[in-house]
Specification:
Rossmann fold; 5-stranded parallel β-sheet; 9 helices; 12% strand; globular; binds dephospho coenzyme A; ATP binding; P-loop_NTPase
């Protein structure tokens, strides 16, 4: 039996940082953001739908998706974001399930699904436990602006397109509070995995 862990949080709270800890321990991670990039490669069904709806203005000259441009459109507009989600999310879900089943069949004791929008898309049934990576909202804003080199308005528009991290924290099975050092977060994660009965050579 594999334990399926849904790793989530909100933008820039530290999901990738925690996901790297799992990878370093050789616990497999299915990465929804990565899949989201693959399903919009030129020629894929979601790509065609995006071009039909948003037009060529969201493409570079070589035909690949201009993510910055598309981001500017969808993070300021709920309707357009929902439209984009409707093109991409079904494709992401299919591929996530395919990868999850592959790891389960291989007999992995734990499989992580790293899904930024687990709560927003109500994907609780895809996982056994929900692990939320939390930071205080002020730190979230600071880290996001610093990482992406974005201004406050741009960063807030992304944060506000998601359920607040404070609310997700309330609904989690377990929380890694990533406000402190990365080392501190790693200790919290080890503790959680041991509590969940995951036996692993690195823990
Ligand atoms: C709009 C796009 C092109 C912007 O690309 P960009 O490279 O700037 O951002 P990236 O994909 O790395 O996403 C960064 C973070 O933004 C947040 N985010 C992305 N898409 C969304 C969305 N539709 N709604 C809310 N938050 C989102 C997530 O926290 C994600 O981790 C891209 O995010 C996208 O295609 N989004 C739709 C697919 C999606 O929902 N992906 C995220 C979950 S799988
Ligand atoms: N404990 C920490 N202390 C200081 N900086 C941190 C810590 N954890 C993460 N960071 C930094 O904060 C930023 C956001 O972290 P990360 O990219 O892991 O978040 P994320 O939740 O995966 O973001 P996204 O939703 O955009 O994928 C990064 O620049 C990362 O290096």
């Amino acid at each position: 039996m594999s334990l399926i862990i849904g790793l989530t949080g909100s933008i820039a709270t530290g999901k990738s940082t925690v996901s790297n800890m799992f990878k370093a321990w050789e616990i497999p991670v299915v990465d929804a953001d990565q899949i989201a990039r693959e399903v919009v490669e030129p020629g894929k069904p979601a790509y065609q739908k995006i071009v039909e709806h948003f037009g060529k203005k969201v493409l570079y000259d070589n035909g690949t998706l201009n993510r910055k441009k598309l981001g500017e459109i969808v993070f300021g507009n709920d309707e357009e974001r929902k439209k984009l989600n409707s093109f991409i999310h079904p494709e992401i879900r299919k591929e996530m399930v395919r990868q999850r089943e592959e790891y389960v069949s291989a007999g992995e004791s734990a499989v992580v699904l790293d899904i930024p929008l687990l709560f927003e898309s109500k994907l609780f049934d895809y996982v056994d436990k929900v692990l939320v990576v939390y930071v205080d909202p002020e730190i979230q804003l600071e880290r996001l602006m610093e990482r992406d080199g974005s201004d406050k308005e741009e960063a807030l528009s992304r944060i506000q397109s998601q359920i607040p991290i404070t609310e997700k924290k309330e609904r989690a099975d377990a929380i890694v509070d990533n406000t402190g050092t990365i080392e501190n977060s790693k200790e919290q994660l080890k503790e959680i995995l041991l509590n969940w009965g995951i036996e692993h050579k690195y823990l």
